[in-house]
Amino acid sequence: MAQFSPGCTLVLLEHLDTPVTRFLLSHPPLSRLFEPQKKEESSFTPEDAVLAAVGIVPCSAERGLLVSQSMLAALEELIRACCAEDEGVPVVLVCGPKNTGKSTFNRYLINLLLNHLPSVEYMECDIGQTEFTPPGCVSLSNVTEPILGPPFTHQQTPLKMVYFGQTSCEHDTERYLDVVKYVFSSYKKEVPLIVNTMGWVKGKQGAVFSRGAAAAR
After folding, report:
1. Which positions are tagged coiled coil (predicted)?
2. Are 125 and 197 in contact (CB under 8 A)?
3. Please, which residues have CB within 8 angstroms of residue 121's CB and are 6 or more apart in sequence?
4. What is the pLDDT of residues 96-121, one digit of tens each?
5. Which of 5, 61, 98, 183 has its C-alpha lying 20 to 30 A from 162's C-alpha?
6. pLDDT band for position 39 (50/70/90)?
């Protein structure tokens, strides 16, 4: 380990064989889902050939994760707050319209926090795009390992979960808010909590978000 500089990354590759992956591969259209895509250009180094064999290929900087300075500043401030020795722990409510990068921000924040803390708790309120459970669920999960793959690769048993039964709460907001309050009541306030919300910030839907945010205080 002494040969690695602070900027290096170690990647552990493991064979992913789970009931979920076997179920996906049983469908003919998805039978080659996890096979590496063939590229026209050849690998130039033995390392490139090994990585390409398992589906890892270099990409240009423009195609990678681009983090703005404002996002970095927000992440640094949140990490300082979460790691502070003060009484109490922060509840981080991540909100914004759809397709603005909430999931990416959540993952990045969780992975950074796990460099400093043994665990982080995550409350899923976006019942249409869940991270650790099947869709249609409001849940509270304890996260101890970095989030590196798509949601189906890190499904886990939550601390508390309610099956709402739909991927949108638009037509049953009162029951949705009751579920959010019920799940949040299981949070023990021992580790930082990240709350993922639905992409509602304006109008009638924004009012639902405001009430949900008030419940997660």
Report:
1. none
2. yes
3. 140, 141, 142, 143, 159, 187, 191, 192, 193, 194
4. 888 888 999 999 999 999 999 999 99
5. 98
6. low
Report the Cα 119 to chain-centroid distance in Å: 14
Question: Taking phi first (over 0 means left), then psi (-120 to 50 degrees means alpha), and beta for anything else, what does residue 180 get?
Answer: alpha
Instruction: For residue 181, give every residue at least 6 positions away whose Cβ sits within 8 Å of its Cβ, in sequence order, or none.
Output: 215
Q: What are the residues whose beta carbons fall under 8 Å from the beta carbon of 153, sequence distance 6 or more?
A: 16
The CATH fold of domain 69-215:
Rossmann fold (3.40.50)
At residue 26, the pLDDT reads: 93
d(Cα 193, Cα 184) in Å, to the nearest integer? 10
Report the distance separating Cα 67 and Cα 59, nearest Å: 16
Q: Is 171 helix (H, G, I), strand (E, B) or coil?
A: coil
Domain range summary for the chain, segments of one domain joined by +: 19-58, 69-215
Residue 87 is which amino acid?
A: E
Measured distance CA(20)–CA(132) in Å, rounded:
13
- E strands, the chain, where? 91-94, 120-124, 137-143, 160-163, 193-196
Please state, in angstroms and rounded to a whole number, the distance separating the CA atoms of residues 140 and 187. Answer: 8
Rounded distance, CA 16 to CA 1, Å?
A: 26
End-to-end CA distance of the chain: 43
Provide the whole-model pTM: 0.79
